[in-house]
Amino acid sequence: MSQWVLHGILRGKKTTAYPARPETAAGVSPGRPVADHYPVSALEALLARCPTRVFSSRDGQITADPRRCIHCYRCVRGLEPPVDWSNTYEWALAHEPRHELGRAFRGSIHICVVDAGDCGACLNEVKQLNNPYYNLHRLGFFITPTPRHADILLVVGPVTDQMRPALRKVYEAMPAPKRVVAVGACALSGGVFAGSFACARGVAEVLPVDVQVPGNPAPPLAILHGLLVATGRQVPAVGAGSKAVPA
Amino acid sequence: MDQAELKAEMEQRWPDLAWRSSNAAALAGEIMGAPAALPELCGHLFLERKLGFAGLIVEEGATAWQLRYVFYGEREREQVHVLVETPLVGKTFPSIAKFVHAADWHEREAEDMYGLVFTGHPRLGDFILHDDAWQEGVEPMRRGFDAAAAERQRQPDADWRPRRIVHERGAFVMPIGPKFSGSAESVHFLLETVGEDVIRATPRLFYKWRAIEKLAEGKTVHEALLLAERFAATTAFAHGLAFCQALETIAGIQVPPRARLLRIFLAELERLRHHAGAIQEICESTALVVAHSQAGILEEDLLRISGELTGHRYLFGLLAPGGLLCDLPDAACAKALAQASAVLQRLDELEKRLRAVSSFLDRLEEVGSVPQRTAFVYGLVGPVARASAVARDLRKAQPYGGYEKLSFEVPMEEEGDGYARLRILFAEAGQSVGLMRQAVAALPQGLGAAARSSGVTPLPLRPGAALGWVEAPRGAAFHWVRLDIDGKIARYHIIPPSFANWHGFHLAVEKFAFQDFPIMLSTFDLSVAENDR
Q1: Three-class SS of residue B470?
Q2: Are A171 and A219 in the same domain?
Q3: B67/B60 Cα distance (integer angstroms)
Q4: pLDDT per residue over B405-431, tens digit each?
C-alpha cells in the first residue's frame, strides 16, 4: 500500500490556486458570449442564429444573458461577424443581498447534490470538484449524501416532473438556514429541455433559488465560485437580472 | 451471411412474407410480415441467425402503425429490418420478448408511449411514466396527445408500491434512491434480500425522463441536433454524430473527407475521456483513494485537452449535419494528440499499479459476473458485452464514417466479471489513441482549398427516414430520424446503449453481497441520463 502514498506524492501538487489567484490553465472553462460591442446593424442575424434567445437589445445596447447560453457556439462559428467570447468562469449570480449564514458556516459547509434531470455533464463537473485539481475540501466544502446534514442544496437539471417530489422532499428535510444553488443552463432556464411537458423550466419553478451558476455545463471553477458566493466569500458577478429567467 | 441466401431461406420458411431488398448502405433488406408471424421470425433472426437486436421503432402513420424491429450482424450489409404495418384501429401485437429477451424493455416502452398492447409480455405497466406520477391512458407519443389535458386530469396513484418478488420468510426490501450517494444520478433500486446477499434487484428508472423525442417533433434539424448532443452530454459527440449520420443518409450526401477524419478524432477523444472517467469511478467504488485521485487527474486532463482544442470540455457545438461547424487546425490536433498520448501512458502506468494490488483485484474478480450466453440473450452492448465475450462493436460490425479505412482491434475478455470490464476499458483507451493518431496522419495535406476544407456539405431538405448509428463509448447507439415534407422532425427515436445495459444490470447484482453493489454499478458503466432521455 505504501507504494500508492509514494506514487501520489511523486505526482506533485495539482491543485488550482483559485480563489487566491485566478486559474490560467487552458480548457478549464467553455467561456461565454459577450455582446457589448456587437454592431447593432448585424443584430438581426445574431438573434436569428441563437436558438435560446441569449441576446436582447435595449436602447441600442446589446446584452447577453449567460443563464440562457447552452454553448452551441453558433454565434461565433458560421456567423459574420462573430460575437466576442470571454473565457472567464467567475460568473455566478445572486439575486439579492441576504444575511450571511453566520460564522459557524465559515469553515465547514455541507452540500447535498440533487440530480433533477441533468444530462450528466453538470454532474460530472461537480464530480471533478472532488479531484486533486479542484479539491473543494481545502475550502471547507463537503458533499454529503443526506439532506439532514446539508447547508447548501446544489441542484442540476431542469427539474423533471418525476423528480419534483424527491427534490421537494430533500429541500424540506434540510435544516435552516439553507441555501439553494442552481447549476447549469437547464437548472436556470430549462436549457434545451424548456418546453417539454415532462419537465419544468428550471429550479426556480419549484424552490427559491439563491445563487445561479450559468453554463452548459457549468465548469468546476464556476461551480466553486457559486459555492463561495453562496457563503459570502466571493462577490457575485454583476448583471444579475430579474429573479427568474423570463420564459 | 449472404443477402440472397438469407432472402431465399426466409422466403422458403415464411412464404407469406414480402422481402424488400434495399440499396441503402448496410441494410440487407426489409421483411414485411404479418403480426402473427412476428415472434417466430424475430426469434429465428435473434437465436439462430445470432443477429443483434438493435431495437423496436414505433411510428404512428396517417392511417397505420408501423413497427420496425431492427436486427444487425457482424458484417457489412447485415442489417435486417422486420416491418409490421397494421391499421391504427388495432393496437394489439404479439410480444416477441418470449424469443427475443432483448426486446423486453422496448415493448414496455412502446406500451407506455403509444398505448400498444403486447400479448404474452410478462410485465407491462409502470415503466417510463411512473404510476405514482401519471394516470393510466397517458400516451405521450401519440399524434393527438394533449399535454395540457393530461396535466389537468392528473391522477397519480398515491398507493402505488413496487412489486415485491421475494416472499421468503424474513425477506425484506432495501430501497435506494432516487437521491442517494454523493453526486450519483437519480435512479431508484429495490434490493430484495433475506440477509447478506441480494436476491433480486429491480432498478426503477426514468425519474429523469425529459420526453426529448416528443420535444424534437416539429423542430428543425438544427434545433433537434441540440437535443441529440445534450440529452446525455457525457457522450455528447457520439450521439450528435449518430443523429447527423441519419440526416446525411436521408439527404444522400457525403461528408468532406477532412471532416470525416476530424469526426473520428473527436469521437475517439471522447471515448478516451469517458473511459478515464469510468476507470476513476471503479477506483472510487473500491475505495482506493490514491488511484481514484490519479484517475481523476487524467479525466480532468482530458477534459482540458478537449476544451483547449475545441472550446468545449464536452465537445458541444462542433457537429453540423453534413460536416463540422468549424475546422480544427492541424497543429492544434497534433498538440491534442501528443497530450492524449501522454495521458494514455499514465493510464497504462496506473493499470500496471492496479494489477499489483491484491485487495483491489479481490473486490473485482468474480464479482458481478455475466456469462456470455446471458449477455447475448439480454442484448448487452459496449465494453460490458465485450467483457463477456460478445463481440459487438459497430465500428467493425457496421462500419460508418470512415472507420473501415483505419486499423484497430476490438479488445475482448471472457470472464464477464468486474475485472474483465475494467481491463476492457484500459485496452480500448489504447485503441482510441491509436485511431486518433491514424486520423491525424491521414488529414488531407497540401491540397486545394476544397479538399482541405472540413466545411459542411449543404443538406438538401427532403422527406424521408433513416437510421444512424455509432459505437458510443458505452456501446451501440441507434438514432432513427424521420423528416416530414418541410424537412422538420416527424419522428425521432433514440436507442441508447445504456437502455440495453440497464436491462441486464440486475444480472450482475443478484446473488452477490450488498457491499459489492457500488462496485457492480461502477463496472457496469451506466448512464441514467442516456437511458432516461
Answers
A1: strand
A2: yes
A3: 9
A4: 999 999 999 988 889 999 999 999 999
Residues A106, A164 within the same domain: yes
User: Do A163 and A111 sit in the same domain of this protein?
Assistant: yes
A71/A133 same-domain check: no
User: Could you tell me which CATH number the domain at B212-532 has?
Assistant: 1.10.645.10
Q: Can you give B210-229 as a three-state secondary structure string?
A: CCHHHHHCCCCHHHHHHHHH
- Hey, what CATH topology would domain B3-128 get? Beta Polymerase; domain 2 (3.30.460)
**Residue A80 belongs to some domain of the structure:** yes
Q: Which helix (H) or strand (E) holds B502?
A: helix B497-509
| Pair (A42, A150) in one structural domain | no
What are the Cα distances from residue B217, in Å, to B129, B199, B489?
19, 42, 5
Angle, CA B489 vertex, CA B318 and CA B396 arms, to 5° = 55
Q: How many domains does chain A have?
A: 2
Per-residue confidence (pLDDT) for residue A116, from 0 to 100: 93
Residue A177, preceding peptide bond in cis (omega within 30° of 0): yes
Q: Does A173 touch chain B (CB under 8 A)?
A: no
Task: Write down the residue that cell numbers 429541455 correspond to.
Answer: A193
- Among chain A residues, CA nearest to B208: A117
Task: Say which residues have a Cβ less than 8 Å from residue B357's Cβ, sequence separation at least 6.
Answer: A1, A4, B288, B291
The answer to the question of residue A15 being in a domain is no
- Cell 410480415 sits on residue: B33
Residues facing A94 on adjacent strands? A211
The dihedral region occupied by B77, where left means phi > 0, alpha psi between -120 and 50, and beta the remainder, is: left
Q: What is the pLDDT of residue A244?
A: 55
Q: Are residues A58 and A132 in the same domain?
A: no
Q: Looking at chain A, which residue has its C-alpha nearest residue B455?
A: A78
CATH number, domain at A102? 3.40.50.12280
Over the range A170-195, which residues count as b (16 or more CB within 10 Å of their CB) and which as e?
bbeebeeebbbbbbbbbbbbbbbbbe
Query: pLDDT grade, residue B447 (50/70/90)?
Result: very low
Residues 159-218 in B contacting A (C-alpha not used; CB under 8 Å): 178-186, 206-212, 214-215
Ranges assigned E (strand) in B371-529? 464-472, 475-483, 489-495
Answer whether residue A246 is part of any domain: no
Under DSSP, the state recorded for B481 is E
Owning domain of residue A82: 32-86
Q: What is the pLDDT of residue B451?
A: 45
Q: Within an 8 Å CB–CB cutoff, is residue A118 touching chain B?
A: yes
Q: What is the CATH number of the domain that holds A64?
A: 3.30.70.20
Rounded to 10 degrees, what is the CA torsion of B351, B352, B358, B364?
20
Q: Identify whether A25 is part of a domain.
A: no
Asked if A161's CB is within 8 angstroms of B297's CB, the reply is: no
